[in-house]
Amino acid sequence: MSEFQLTTPVAFIIFNRPDTTKRVFDEIAKAKPPKLLVVADGPRVDRQGEADKVAAARAVINCVNWECEVLTNFSETNLGLRQRVSSGIDWVFAQVEEAIILEDDCLPDPTFFRFCQELLEHYRHDQRIGMISGNNFQFGRRRNRDSYYFSKYTHIWGWATWRDRWVGSYDVAMSKWPRIRDEGWLIDMVGNAREARYWENIFEQVYCGKINSWAYQWTFANWVEGRLTILPATNLISNIGFGSDATHTNGTSELANMARVPMNFPLVHPVGVIRNNQADRFSYIKCFQQPFVKRVFNKLARLLR
After folding, report:
1. pTM assigned to the model
2. Rounded to an integer, what distance in angstroms lies between the CA atom of residue 155 and that of residue 235?
3. What is the third-level CATH fold of 10-172+214-303?
4. Which residues, in sequence order, are CB contacts of 180 under 8 Å at separation 6+?
5. pLDDT, tens digit, for every residue of 41-100?
6. Rounded CA separation 126/183 (Å)
7. Residue 133 host element (H or E)
8. Is residue 261 a contact partner of residue 235, using CB atoms and an 8 Å limit?
9. Terminal CA-to-CA distance of the chain, rounded, Å?
10. How far, in Å, CA of 132 to CA of 150, rounded?
């Protein structure tokens, strides 16, 4: 790693957790990006003490001690997860052509930065690729010797993309959803009826404002464009944010605090841009599909209301 020099801008999305912010920042500092773009939401007025936590998280950025242009986009009012992250990434790509994006609870392995930078360059003009992720949820399963594989899933716990994939494609309001839903295109996107039902429920709730998310819209945008995600053969990110103060990751999960496994270089590229259906089926079970017992419990709960 000593010969590697990071030249790609890094976007860092923070809020009210100075402890995890500092841990992720320390890894960014080791990589020494020449440009750091920091996005932060404002405190909620009904949360006592949150203003101090927000200020403490922002103060972490003052620890930059390498040659670096620091740009900030701090909201003084609370925009909420959906608007703050989406508008923040809009701002990032108004400044730069491509970026590595980390949130304040996504702890990267040092090799994550080189992995993203090399593949941002390799696939810069290949519109079949929507993003590069640092996540691997295969739990040690490897199906070949390639350094990465192609997936339909847009895992965003540490990722990278280009301006031309985001701008003009991402739509926080998901205005194309009613047509996709009504014309039955979703099953063609995901490949099977059962999973299509799962995503139809998710997208409908996001569209109606019942799920406070920016990330499902990014999944939707990439599927509409027919783009794939690059996922590493080893897990390069550990989500250290599971807990009571998290927005979505506030329960127990085997995806929490996963071990980081360094990427080996030089990268071994796949022979073609072909989605790994076997890996995606496994990811669906691990990341999205509810266990049978939980489905039965939820159904009984609905019947007993």
Report:
1. 0.92
2. 12
3. Spore Coat Polysaccharide Biosynthesis Protein SpsA; Chain A (3.90.550)
4. 186, 189, 203, 220, 224
5. 999 999 999 999 999 999 999 999 999 999 999 999 999 999 999 999 999 999 999 999
6. 28
7. strand 129-133
8. yes
9. 57
10. 9
Among the listed residues 99, 75, 140, 95, the one whose alpha carbon sits nearest the alpha carbon of residue 11: 99
Length of the chain equals 305
Specify burial of residue 131 (Cβ count, 10 A radius: 0-12, 13-18, 19+).
Answer: buried
User: Which residues face 160 on adjacent strands?
Assistant: 100, 132
* C-alpha distance from residue 296 to each of 32, 138, 197, 275, 293 (Å): 49, 26, 17, 32, 5
Coil, helix or strand at residue 199 = helix
Q: For residue 95, which of 38, 40, 42 has the smallest C-alpha distance? A: 38
What confidence tens digit (pLDDT) does each residue in 130-183 have?
Answer: 999 999 999 999 989 999 999 999 999 999 999 999 999 999 999 999 999 999
DSSP bridge pairs for 14 = 40
The CB density around residue 198, as the number of other CB atoms within 10 Å, is 16
Which single residue is written with the structure tokens 């809020």?
A: 15
Q: How many CA atoms lie within 13 A of 1 on its CB side?
A: 14
Residue with tokens 């989605």: 275
Longest dimension (CA), the chain: 62
User: Under 8 Å CB-to-CB from 206, ≥6 apart: which residues?
Assistant: 174, 213, 216, 217, 220
Q: What angle do CA 141, 154, 150 make, to 5 degrees?
A: 50
